[in-house]
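Sample entry (188 residues):
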Amino acid sequence: MSPSNPKYELGGINHLALVCSDMRRTIDFYSGTLGMPLIKTIELPGNLGQHFFFDCGGGNSLAFFWLADAPDASPGLAAPKGLPDEGELLSGVGSMNHVAFAVPPELFDEYYERVAAEGIKVSRVLNHDDSPRGVSREVHEGTFVRSFYFQDPDGVLLEFACWTRKFTEADVSHEPKTAADRTVSAGL
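Predicted structure, serialized as tokens:
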């Protein structure tokens, strides 16, 4: 049984809004390559730009802004520079690190092959567990999610993930870090 929210009745994510540099290329990738139906398009007033929505399953949407005056991407600051299995996970405070799409566990391996067959660079499969490294080569009793990562044409980090077990109270066991625990690179 999932924990309930005593304050608000939330039904998941309505949509996550990202920014793209080329809406046509974004449609080609999300609708063409990943098969997500384009469900709503909006022209923003004052030639500001566009806002398009894709159905990503389960009643959830992924949305993109194309903004005429959007600054260029800042890999390593606004989003990771590459794939997590290459050691690239860093992004700045307030950034959107990645979007993880839920996929059926029984289709996970097939989907990995299909995404790679599209010519998209994919990470190795990561079997996330509670070991010191956080991942294992093989699925085992401690594996809680399997995933692989790839990027869209603008460098947005995407993940296909499937849960492999139900969580228990024992899965919430770490002391939260605070702002005082951060180390900030001298270059920022």
